[in-house]
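R.M. (postdoc): so does anyone remember the format we settled on? I'll just put the structure tokens first.
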């Protein structure tokens, strides 16, 4: 067993790191992480972490490339400070959508990210709802993938929606959407879509399943520009859906996402705080649920050599 547990964070999401530490009943570790005028990032850990069990919380979110470099440099600093074990806690795994070669002469950036994190010094990865499950196999270190599904499911169970149907926004997310539908005791529908090249636009083609007269809850792992989401909403409206809600784990909300959500008939978009949602993106349609207790419990279990999977056996039973 490793010595005392230490939690550190960069600048990507300090509020989440503080909330995790509150759950654990431990202070957030002290560190300086800043950028010089020449854009070089400097890190100095301000307390002893020799032989400690170190967890570095840093989602790979906007500004994406700065968040990546902070994470890598923090891990290198911890490694050189003789940390006993280093766990990269990456609630949102950026570049996860580039997980395969689907065109000639393109990279597999999700694999590159795995290599960078490992070489920088991570002994294990803790993350939430990867875009593709095979990303776990890109790592040669242990990977614990948590899911926010029970948190999202609990929210909608408490709302007691009338005649709900869960709608997978594309075929790729249908397996997770099926599990989500089962937790709500609701049927599943799937939107078959075609993405238009490398743009953020998606053309919805067909809805598989019965949705007419029902309350739809769209399900996806992330909402980026909301192009796919709004296309799904339009398709559902055309099939006579009564009300439409949406949920996802990662609220990227880039580009015109907020304008699209506000101008849509969506009742609400329920997300988690794996990525910070700034005040200018918060409105009466965005509902933010916290994953701090989920991450905190996983960190506690990893540190004490307990099962992480058992968390979800209890939740989904």
């Amino acid at each position: 067993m490793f010595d005392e547990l230490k939690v550190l964070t960069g600048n990507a999401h300090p509020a989440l790191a503080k909330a995790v530490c509150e759950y654990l009943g431990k202070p957030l570790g002290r560190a300086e992480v800043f950028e010089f005028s020449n854009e070089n990032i400097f890190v100095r850990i301000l307390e002893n972490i020799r032989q400690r069990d170190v967890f570095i919380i840093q989602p790979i979110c906007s500004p994406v490339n700065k968040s990546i470099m902070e994470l890598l440099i923090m891990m290198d600093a911890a490694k050189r400070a003789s940390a006993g074990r280093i766990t990269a806690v990456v609630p949102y795994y950026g570049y996860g959508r580039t997980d395969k070669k689907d065109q000639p002469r393109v990279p597999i950036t999700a694999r590159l990210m795995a290599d960078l994190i490992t070489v920088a010094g991570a002994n294990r990865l803790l993350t939430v709802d990867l875009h593709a499950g095979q990303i776990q196999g890109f790592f040669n270190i242990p990977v614990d993938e948590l899911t926010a599904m029970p948190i999202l499911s609990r929210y909608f169970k408490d709302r007691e929606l009338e005649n709900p149907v869960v709608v997978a926004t594309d075929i790729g997310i249908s397996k997770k959407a099926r599990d989500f539908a089962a937790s709500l005791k609701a049927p599943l529908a799937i939107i078959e879509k075609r993405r238009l090249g490398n743009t953020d636009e998606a053309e919805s083609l067909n809805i598989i399943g019965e949705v007419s007269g029902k309350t739809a809850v769209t399900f996806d792992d992330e909402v980026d520009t909301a192009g796919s989401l709004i296309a799904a909403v339009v398709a559902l409206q055309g099939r006579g859906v009564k009300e439409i809600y949406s949920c996802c784990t990662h609220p990227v909300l880039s580009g015109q996402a907020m304008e699209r959500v506000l101008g849509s008939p969506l009742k609400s978009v329920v997300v988690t705080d794996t990525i910070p949602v700034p005040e200018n993106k918060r409105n009466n349609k965005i509902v933010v649920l916290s994953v701090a207790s989920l991450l905190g419990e996983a960190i506690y279990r990893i540190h004490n050599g307990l099962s992480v999977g058992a968390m979800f056996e209890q939740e989904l039973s």
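R.M.: ...and that's the designed sequence above, right after the tokens. Also worth knowing: The two ends are 30 Å apart (CA to CA). The first strand starts at residue 5 and ends at 9.
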